[in-house]
Design brief:
Radius of gyration: 22 Å
Number of strands: 11
Distance between the termini: 58 Å
Number of helices: 11
Bound molecules: adenosine-5'-triphosphate
Largest sheet: 7 strands, mixed
Shape: elongated
Length: 324
């Protein structure tokens, strides 16, 4: 392998810069020419590919977002778009690609590799933690830290006014952020896309809390909960339960940003380092991940079987037990 390009695609996640830095410096350390592709697959199609040296990734380890930018690129989903992307890779003499992103990014990479034989290694970069093959994906830990910092502040005001807060967090299909945030913030209840919770059960729980002198209550709602978002749930609860003054906060995109936690900086560094080493070892169509504190390769095909249940059973049980 002589020339490797790296790109970030799909939703951005804190820690992506740590991974880019590690990919670039590991490659350079081994005498490989390194390139950065701007705006994900869009940059492959637009030939927005630039050489990178060790200094081009200086002072980025602590930054959220991604210096390579990211994009959602519909053209890459077409055969014509993939052909243009391949022509540009050939033009730049690039033999392998490291893609940092989520399931959509990996689906595109897999097709690209199958169509043109380009070697690809994936790094799981998504705050949703919805990929098989890594206990944590890049950005997940930072997102949880951001959520609990916000909830701690909301708790202060909730407590002062005897309020019931419904806080909506990211997770269209995955309740990972919601579940961990609920444990770390001591929420009274959590509503997850993966689990049916009836509004009646929720009201019973809140009523029990009120009866046992809880001065405030916090309910975390994952945006993909089957009965609706935080506003919908709050409205339904308020119809029959008005013990507290009810408020809703949607945390939204602030969950995507911020300086990566130490965990995500180290994870990004480990996965970037491992991705280049995997390419050097001749691997392709693999995702590098961390399982039980060890770097593991999982085929991208298997990583994409993801949307299976990834919520830890002990955490699920604890949400009931510790919130009494
Ligand atoms: P996140 O989990 O944060 O949303 P993601 O990687 O899943 O990240 P997507 O927007 O789903 O984000 O995918 C990123 C890009 O991958 C798409 O914009 C598109 O360019 C490419 N892609 C997705 N699906 C395919 C596909 N079936 N074929 C080719 N390319 C694809």
């Amino acid at each position: 392998i002589k020339n490797i390009a790296v790109l970030t695609s799909g939703g951005d996640a804190p820690g992506m810069n740590a991974a880019i830095r590690a990919v670039v410096r590991t490659g350079i350390y081994h005498g490989i020419n390194m390139y950065g592709v701007m705006q994900g697959y869009q940059g492959l199609i637009n030939d927005n590919i630039k050489p990178m040296d060790a200094r081009s990734v200086s002072n980025i380890l602590h930054l959220g977002g991604t210096i390579l930018k990211t994009a959602r690129c519909l053209e890459f989903k077409t055969d014509e778009g993939q052909q243009i992307a391949y022509n540009n890779l050939k033009k730049n003499d690039i033999d392998a690609l490291v893609v940092i992103g989520g399931d959509g990014t990996f689906t595109g990479a897999k097709r690209f590799s199958e169509n043109f034989g380009v070697k690809v290694i994936g790094i799981p970069g998504t705050i949703d933690n919805d990929l098989v093959g890594s206990d944590f994906t890049l950005g997940y830990d930072t997102a949880i830290n951001t959520v609990i910092e916000a909830i701690d502040k909301i708790r202060d005001t909730a407590d002062a006014h005897d309020r019931l807060f419904f806080i909506e967090v990211m997770g269209r299909d995955s309740g990972c952020i919601a579940l961990r945030s609920s444990i770390a913030s001591g929420a009274e209840a959590v509503l997850l896309p993966e689990k049916e919770t009836s509004v009646t059960d929720l009201i019973d729980k809140l009523a029990l809390g009120a009866a046992t002198k809880k001065s405030s209550s916090i309910v975390i709602v994952a945006e993909g909960h089957k009965q609706g978002g935080a506003y919908d749930i709050a409205k339904k609860v308020k119809e029959t339960f008005d013990h507290y003054d009810t408020k809703v906060t949607i945390l939204g995109h602030l969950q995507r940003g911020g300086s990566p936690s130490s965990y995500d900086r180290i994870l990004g560094s480990r996965l970037g380092f491992a991705a280049v080493n995997a390419l050097i070892a001749g691997e392709t169509e693999q995702m590098v991940g961390l399982k039980g504190n060890e770097i593991k390769l999982t085929s991208i095909k298997e990583a994409l079987t993801a949307h299976s249940f990834k919520l830890e059973p002990d955490l699920l049980e604890m949400t009931e037990v510790l919130s009494i």
